[in-house]
Structures are given as C-alpha cells and as structure tokens.
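Researcher: We are triaging several targets before committing to wet-lab work. For this one, the compound of interest is flavin-adenine dinucleotide. I'm pasting the protein sequence and the ligand SMILES. What I need is the predicted three-dimensional arrangement of the protein with the ligand bound, expressed as structure tokens, so it can go straight into our comparison scripts without reformatting.
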Amino acid sequence: MPSLADLMTTTERHQVVVVGAGIAGMVAARRLADLGLDVVVLEGRDRVGGRLWSHRLPNGEIVELGGEWISTGQKAVMGLVDELGLVPIDTGLDFISRDPVGGPQLPTSQHARLAEALARRMSRIGEEALSSMTAAELLDGLAGTGPVMKVVRSRLQGTAGAPLHWIAAAEIGEEFGIGDEGRYVRIEGGNDNLVRSLGDGLALRHGCVVDTIRQDARAVHVFAGDEEHVGLAVVLAVPLAVLATLRFEPALPSAVALPIASLRMGSGAKVAIATQAAPDLFRRQDMDIPAWYWTGLSQTGAVRRAITAFAGSETGVSGLLGDAMGRLRRAAPECDLVGEPVVVDWTADPLAGGCYSVIGPGQRRALASLAAPIGRLHLAGEHVNGSGTIDGAIRTGEDAARSVSRFSVF
Ligand SMILES: Cc1cc2nc3c(=O)[nH]c(=O)nc-3n(C[C@H](O)[C@H](O)[C@H](O)COP(=O)(O)OP(=O)(O)OC[C@H]3O[C@@H](n4cnc5c(N)ncnc54)[C@H](O)[C@@H]3O)c2cc1C
C-alpha cells in the first residue's frame, strides 16, 4: 500500500483531492475531512458555490442568481440546513402553479387538476414506457388546450432548460410536485450560505482550473495548467459540460465516457432587479418565451423588494437576455424597477456550460455507471444522479464521500 511519504516527489499532495467547490464537491470534502482525512478542494472560480450564487442588490435584498427553490420535502438539503444551523425562509410561493404574464390569474385548482390528470396518465403508461418516450409525447396525449396547459408547456420547457422533445417523459412528474407536499424555501443570507458554511476550515485553492486527470496504480494526478495535485483518491465534482472537456489518462471506460458524451445540459439564464416598493407576491409565466418572473417573502414575512426571472432553453435565454428590462417591465407593470438588472447567462459560463443536466428518453439507465468508482476516481455533481437539483447534488457528494471512505488505501 503506498503511503503519502512514498508519493512525496513533486507538487502538492493530499489523501483526497476534490475538484469543484459546488455543493456536491463541498459536501464530499466536508464529510471526508470530518473523518480525519487530509483533503484539498480545487476550484476554478474565486468563490465557492458554483451554480449556487447569491447576490445582494443595491437595496439590500438578497437574490439567487443560480439554484433557488428548495422544497421542505427534499430530505438531503433540509438535513444539511439543519446540521449547519441555517435558517430556511418560506418564499410564500409554490414553484408549480403560475399565472400568465398579462393574463388573468389561474386558480391553483386548475394546476392541481392538470397534475392529477398527468399523474393518472403516467401511471397508466407505466415507468418503463415513460422512460423511453418524450415529455412532448406525454403532454400531447393529455386533454386540454386552455391557458393552464399553455403555461405548463412553457414552464416545463423553461424549467428543463430544453425543448420538450429532449426530455424523457418519466422525468417531469416532480415538476408537477407529484409526490411532494413540501413548501418552498430559500436560505437566510442566500442559498450559497450552504456551501460557504461547509467550507469552514477546509483547504481550498481558488483559481485552479483543472484540465487533465491522470490515474496510475499508486495515485491520481490532477493538473491545472502547470500545477499538479496528487491524491490517493479524487472526487471530481465539476458540471457535466466541463467533465466532457477534461482529458483523462487513461481514457475513461466507455460505460462512463458514453453517458458523459450523450447527456446534455439545458440552457438557463437569470435576471434580478430591485424594486422601489414591496411588490405583491406573484409568479408569472411569460407566454412568448419559456421564462418566468417572481417575487417572494423575506425573513420578516414581508414581500422582498426584488423581482427575479429565469429563462430556460436557448429560445428562453435569447428572448430574456435580448430585452431583459423590457420583459421585466411587461411582466410587472405595476412595479417601479430600480437601476439595471443583474444578468447571468449560465450557458455562456465556461465553468458551468448550462444550467443543469437534462435526462432524455432511455438515458436514466446509463447514469448508474457514473456513480460507480473508476479506480481511484469518484464522480459527484447533479448530473451523476440526473437530479438537476441542489438536493440531488448533495446526495451525490454524500455518496462520493462514502465511496472514497470505503477505499482501502488510507
Ligand atoms: C439558473 C439556475 C437555476 C437553478 N434553479 C434551481 C432550483 O430552483 N432548485 C434546485 O434545486 N436547483 C436549481 N438549480 C440547480 C442547482 O443549482 C445545481 O443542481 C447544483 O447547484 C449543482 O451543484 P454541483 O455541485 O453539482 O455543481 P456546481 O455548483 O456547478 O459546482 C461545480 C464546481 O466546479 C467548478 N469547476 C468547474 N470546472 C472546473 C475545473 N475545470 N476546475 C476546477 N473547478 C471547476 C465550478 O466553478 C463549480 O464551483 C439551478 C441552477 C441554475 C444554474
């Protein structure tokens, strides 16, 4: 068994190297460090959090530029919130039902009826068939063409960040809140507080953009330009789009390389702006492009003086970013918007490459091979279980830490 001393020839050496300080990588790093292992986290950006990124607007309101909605029904994330002593803030909104921009409010009961009809249709079709059909085919088979159906189609495309024919029908049940009775919360101080709190006392190297992973019988060598970091095990927790660009020596086995090459990431962008006065609580779906706009409660229970928008899929992103201010004004004509909006295009971000992974027809089965260790290499991140969520990313971090700790080399 090689010891650390055996490996002491060049550069930085640690028992475990974690690549990516998003929530998945940081959960893995925290768990392994708590087991007494010597862990370093390599992060390409000058901040932790990755696709969790909270921002304070000039009027003091905190908005989420990345992952935002957390359901109290999501056990991994709520468990972590509790463990870290963080405070969940009720948003006062649900993520599921929305009103059309400029249109009449749609009663929540209409959304609920559609969700029930969908749940019935999904159970008639059965899981096996659902996993090989597209979300477009599933919705085409549902009766109803009214405004609620239009809102739902736009919402689903936006939420997935991809056209409905990219998405496996089996994946959209959760999007209707089927089986989830939770309320939606954000974290006091910003959702990226989750990641910052995990980082206390961890060894972190910022500005370290990893490009090559070389694995031999004794160790894994992680290269970032001319820096080399050597570990007895590596947790690789970069987004799917980045994973697909890394150089692996030897090449990854095809059972792993194929899903990495064939899974896609959705496109997503966010826009946020301060308002003069507290707006009403609303969540409005744009009917021209797959984008939506919402307010939400602050920790005091008052409505925040801010509006946030999310656009998903290429159509949504170009539509929202092409005229962010105009779209915000049309979505919330009753609000006095203050200053310029903050805009983040996640698809154009080289360390993200999109908003989250999209599971297409027949693709879920292939995910199992991403979760299995590849020698000394362990993958983590929302794409590994195809969740696309904060909760799912946390679970992959926990799984990777367990997988590393079972490893007999330490
Ligand atoms: C706009 C948007 C809205 C979202 N909304 C929600 C939501 O409402 N609810 C929800 O649950 N989820 C939402 N998500 C998804 C959620 O944010 C992600 O699933 C989760 O944060 C992913 O965590 P991760 O650790 O897998 O990846 P990331 O957070 O992307 O972490 C990966 C880390 O690796 C770093 N990195 C990348 N490449 C390299 C490299 N070569 N070398 C070194 N470091 C590198 C990155 O900088 C990053 O810090 C949203 C995401 C986006 C973008």
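Researcher: Any quick observations?
Model: The pocket of flavin-adenine dinucleotide is lined by residues 19-25, 42-45, 50-52, 66-69, 208-210, 237-239, 242, 268, 270, 310, 346, 351-352, 355-356, 381-382, 388-391, 393 (CB under 6 Å).
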